[in-house]
Write a sequence for this structure.
């Protein structure tokens, strides 16, 4: 089974802090994604990566950056956390082989005070 | 731009009932459609993936159908159980390479199955 893990289930940070959310997948997938999920707004794509060191902006990249130094790991960075970044963050991965299923991690509930 | 709509937004049924969740999308040029389940505060679990060339997929008590030309998919759950209570999301992948072939999600249907 594909396994996507995220470094924390719950995280509480203060405004202005730099925040790192880590995601690791164990199936050698080329594509990795970061979403945020908010009530009434659904899932929105922040960034994705289709290869090591490659990244593309999604729908809502402002205030975020990403890093993909190794194929299995995709990090989401909040350079200076703000209260409007309080959300559920979901990481996902997918093979490029034939537009296969997208697999999600358990999510990180981030609260910015 | 692709838009995905799920109706109803919420559904409550007694245990044992068969039920249908609906998903519609505006652009029929899709590569596949995926149904997910999400429990409160958790990530998404993939239930079924239907390629655009397929009409349906089955897994246990779940059956998903796809009518690409009309832009519709349904998720049929047979003999519902309280453990089926969750939010169900459908998502489509675009046919052409569009910014990584990202998924476009519907808003979800929140299902409650009462004992």
């Amino acid at each position: 089974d594909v396994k996507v893990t995220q470094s924390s289930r719950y995280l509480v940070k203060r405004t202005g802090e730099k925040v790192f959310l880590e995601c690791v997948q164990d199936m050698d997938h080329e594509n990795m994604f970061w979403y945020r999920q908010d009530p009434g707004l659904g899932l929105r794509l922040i960034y994705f990566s289709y290869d090591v060191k490659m990244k593309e902006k999604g729908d809502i990249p402002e205030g975020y950056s990403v890093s993909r130094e190794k194929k299995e790991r995709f990090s989401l960075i909040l350079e200076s956390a703000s209260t409007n970044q309080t959300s559920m963050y979901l990481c996902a991965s997918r093979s490029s082989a034939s537009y296969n299923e997208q697999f999600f991690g358990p999510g990180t509930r981030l609260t910015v005070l | 731009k692709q838009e995905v709509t799920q109706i109803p937004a919420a559904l409550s049924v007694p245990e044992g009932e068969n039920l249908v969740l609906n998903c519609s999308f505006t652009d029929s040029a899709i590569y596949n459609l995926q149904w997910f389940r999400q429990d409160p505060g958790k990530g998404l679990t993939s239930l079924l993936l239907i390629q655009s060339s397929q009409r349906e997929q089955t897994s246990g008590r779940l059956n998903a159908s796809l009518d690409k030309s009309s832009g519709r998919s349904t998720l049929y759950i047979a003999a519902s159980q309280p453990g089926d209570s969750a939010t169900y999301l459908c998502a489509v992948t675009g046919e052409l390479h569009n910014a990584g072939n990202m998924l476009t999600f519907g808003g979800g249907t929140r299902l409650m199955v009462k004992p």
